[in-house]
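In the design runs reported in the main text, the only information available to the sequence generator was the tokenized backbone. The following block is the verbatim input for one such run; it is reproduced so that readers can re-run the procedure and compare outputs position by position.
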């Protein structure tokens, strides 16, 4: 196998991805993953690979590559790449898509693939239970839990909580989502009208990346309630929750932190699918 992959930036999930690609017999050059893989190569060398794999999300901050060990502006990275290369990244913002197009690069957002988003949601939902258990002083069994949002993560999290013997309630904006919540046998709430509905909950999980629970609503939660925010932009005012004495945590990027090997396997499969669809055998 002669193909060379450049795995640049990200978290332990990217390091595990590099390991999986190497196990399949490919040459892999990494940059910015020294915390998990020891010494890598220079940015220029990693950027010379045939296929470039960038992290999920692509950016942390405005136009800065998600690369805690060695952050670099995406515009600087893209200047090292050529139109002959295939560039893969997750959650590509319009600004970075435009930067790539202006340089004639082929930039594919692998997080737009349904198999990736569903698998990522499943890993996130399972990891969310671990986070909650680490902060609770009791079991989830019999606990009243509220799930805010009923997208992929909200659905899968509700199912996993139900399987743990939790009394599940889910809140959504769309009437059709609330109908599905009721069809699954759970109580539904209108996410825009939570006032007076929050007193029973021992745990609240948010999946909505916009403000939902601010101080006036948080004050209605029991003192022992644990708040776990899973959204990329918190829907729970974490500082307000903590000022009220609530145990609140912004648990973002759980797949990369708590289940990196599983998350990496999902990305490896997506990379192979993308290459095959482009007529490039792997």
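Verbatim output:
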């Amino acid at each position: 196998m002669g193909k060379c992959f450049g795995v640049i930036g990200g978290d332990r999930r990217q390091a595990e991805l590099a390991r999986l690609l190497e196990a399949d017999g490919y040459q892999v050059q990494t940059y910015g993953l020294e915390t998990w893989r020891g010494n890598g190569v220079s940015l220029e060398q990693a950027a010379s690979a045939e296929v470039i794999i960038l992290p999920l999300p692509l950016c942390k901050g405005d136009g800065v590559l998600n690369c805690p060990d060695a952050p670099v502006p995406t515009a600087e990275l893209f200047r090292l790449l050529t139109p002959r290369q295939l560039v893969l990244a997750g959650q590509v913002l319009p600004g970075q898509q435009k930067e790539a197009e202006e340089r004639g690069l082929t930039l594919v957002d692998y997080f737009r693939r349904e198999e990736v988003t569903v698998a990522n949601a499943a890993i996130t939902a399972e990891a969310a239970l671990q986070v909650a258990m680490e902060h609770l002083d009791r079991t989830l069994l019999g606990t009243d839990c509220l799930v805010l949002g009923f997208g992929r993560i909200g659905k899968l999290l509700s199912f996993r909580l139900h399987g743990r013997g939790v009394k599940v309630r889910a809140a959504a904006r769309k009437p059709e989502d609330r109908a599905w919540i009721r069809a699954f046998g759970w109580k539904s709430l209108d996410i825009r009208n939570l006032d007076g509905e929050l007193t029973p909950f021992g745990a609240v999980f948010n999946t909505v990346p916009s403000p939902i629970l601010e101080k006036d609503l948080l004050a209605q939660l029991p003192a022992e309630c644990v708040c776990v925010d899973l959204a990329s932009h918190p829907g729970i005012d974490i500082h307000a929750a903590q000022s009220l004495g609530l145990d609140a945590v912004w648990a973002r990027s759980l797949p990369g932190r708590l289940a990196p090997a599983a998350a990496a396997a999902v990305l490896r499969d997506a990379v192979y699918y993308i290459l095959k669809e482009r007529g490039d055998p792997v």
